[in-house]
Amino acid sequence: MPLKGLNVLEFSGLAPVPFVGTVLSDFGANVTIIQKRNVMFEFTSFLNGGKKSIGINLKHPEGIEITQKLIANADILLEPFRPGVMEKLGLGPNVMMAKNPRLIYARLNGYGSHGQYAQRAGHDINYLAISGLLSLYGSKNAKPVPPVNFSEFAGGSMVCVMGILMAVIERYKSGKGQVVEANITEGMSYVGSWLMCSQDSMIWGKSKGENLLDGGMHFYDTYETKDGKWMAVGALEPAFYREFIEGLGLNIDEVEQMDNFQSNREIIANKFKEKTREEWSNIFDSKDACVTPVLELDEVDQHPHNATRNSFMRKNNVVVPVPAPKLSATPGVSSSNKPIAVSGQNTREILESIGYTQMEITKLFQNNTIFEDSKSRL
């Protein structure tokens, strides 16, 4: 696996940083989570599959000492806190990179290390709002509607992973680590570069809900079928549009692509309601019209295309994507089916690996510097 041998130390937090750890783990890195007592984000616990966990009281001086030793032996550190928290703990990059010059110190937060909002809390909707991109989402003459938790993972987690891997490549050249400062607001803005640079074009130059790619056109939209399900239409180019109209059984002269958008939408909507989603899928699967069924999450692994590629797997009957991209020589392996690390369950093992004796470990347990939960979950 491409990241085999890299040791990652992840400070527990909400979903974006754990997902960074999951991606690195799926492609071979050894990931250890530093967790606080009685802190378990149940809705993100599935991101802890295949990781190890050590329970440390970071308010205890000996807890800080243990953490410093762990960082000194790490290749990559993942930090999810607001600016200044790690510095107050004595674990900031200046201190730790002096002890470990090869350390790649990755910081991921909402707004960045400085600026008016740096110390403020936020969620996906707030970061999208500040980036400007939220203004683009939603129907015509309606309020902005955020996509489901997209920016935290695309603009946050994946941009952070990209920065970490670039730092790993640079370290092979220079032998030195560096700070990777990722924040969700700027990351999402970067991911949305094409949208932001298309504001004056025919693609994205009109008001929300009136553009080429936001449902403003009848040939790029979703349509309800006879059975209450949906089909997605992306027939942008004339050749695809012609195939689309033929597949519907309509006359191209009656629904010209660049005229009568609203009446064409009504004609097409009424046509789609004549057949079920399966019937329409059977028709368009044999045509190059950019028309596909809108699949529900619990059925995506059953679709013939996805099933053939083994794009998904199931854990406890929940559909989970396999690692992407697929590498021909060193593919990733999903950590989804590996035991989920419970807070502090590997504490003793990890301390032994960095030289603590059984007597020292027992004392640390007794003074509540560390803790251990032996119950792992599948």
TrEMBL record:
GO cellular component assignments: mitochondrion
GO BP annotations, alphabetical order: bile acid metabolic process
- Care to name a GO molecular-function term for this sequence? alpha-methylacyl-CoA racemase activity
Task: Spell out the InterPro entries in the cross-references.
Answer: CoA-transferase_III (IPR050509), CoA-Trfase_fam_III (IPR003673), CoA-Trfase_III_dom3_sf (IPR044855), CoA-Trfase_III_dom_1_sf (IPR023606)
Give the protein family: Belongs to the CoA-transferase III family.
PANTHER family, per this entry?
A: ALPHA-METHYLACYL-COA RACEMASE, SUCCINYL-COA--D-CITRAMALATE COA-TRANSFERASE
Name of the protein described by the UniProt record? Alpha-methylacyl-CoA racemase
Traced from the root, the source organism's taxonomic lineage reads: Eukaryota, Metazoa, Ecdysozoa, Arthropoda, Hexapoda
